[in-house]
Amino acid sequence: MKVFIVYAHPSEDSLTFHVRNSFIAGLESAGHSWIMSDLYKMNFRTDMDEEEYLREAYYRLDLKVPEDVKAEHSKINSSDAIVFIYPLFWSDAPAKMVGWFDRVWTYGFAYAGTDDKGKLVSQGRLMKQLEKGLVLCIAGNTMEYFRETGILAALEKVMLDDRLFDRVKTKELILFDGTSRETESRTSRWDEFLNRAYRAGADFLPCEISR
Ligand SMILES: Cc1cc2nc3c(=O)[nH]c(=O)nc-3n(C[C@H](O)[C@H](O)[C@H](O)COP(=O)(O)O)c2cc1C
Predict the structure, then answer these.
(1) Cα-to-centroid distance, 152 and ligand 1 (Å)
(2) Is this model's pTM higher than 0.90 or not?
(3) CA of 108 to the centre of ligand 1 (A)
(4) Which of 2, 74, 88, 96 has minimal Cβ neighbours within 10 Å of its Cβ?
(5) Tens-digit pLDDT profile for the chain (211 aa)?
(6) Which candidate, 4, 93, 100, places its Cα nearest to that of 43?
């Protein structure tokens, strides 16, 4: 399978960076190929300009899709699966990644418009349905905290049910919890985190699907 990784972390001095590398090592061990958008490194622009806003707000297919967004569309449609890797910032992905969704999930590509009766008002959507969507989210707080507060459910709702929706056939969110620099578990569980990331890559869907 060809896997498109969307990665967002501002520093290589991070657990997230190591999780990313272990995941890639796992993917390669299973014979998968991959491409990546490293959003901070690319200095990906995350703010919509006015024309982009008007295109989305008024379903204006006549307004142009910027070239950097088209490049992301090509990466998606040339892949079989998509993987998001990021640290949790204020109970969401970093703004760098949220802005990627704002700009890349465009009308006519990631979704088609419907009228108030649910009837399609555009030609449909150009984005192919991917075999799998995987989210690797690295978070400071504990799983207990995320369950009790409902934040885990919220993360799954937003990333899996809303952003990935039916754009992928299967989907999963793996939360790496208890990774805060203030906690002892960050160091004691470091190898466990990296093994888990490696396994997520090595046990990705079988290669036969669409290589
Ligand atoms: C601006 C900022 C906001 C953060 N917000 C949260 C948060 O809402 N919940 C949480 O569990 N951790 C939060 N963290 C901790 C990060 O998820 C932290 O980056 C995580 O431990 C991963 O470690 P790494 O940055 O070394 O990859 C935040 C960190 C920063 C810098």
Answers:
(1) 14
(2) yes
(3) 34
(4) 74
(5) 999 999 999 999 999 999 999 999 999 999 999 999 999 999 999 999 999 999 999 989 899 999 999 999 999 999 999 999 999 999 999 999 999 999 999 999 999 866 666 666 666 789 999 999 999 999 999 999 999 999 999 999 999 999 999 999 999 999 999 999 988 889 999 999 999 999 999 999 865 544 3
(6) 100
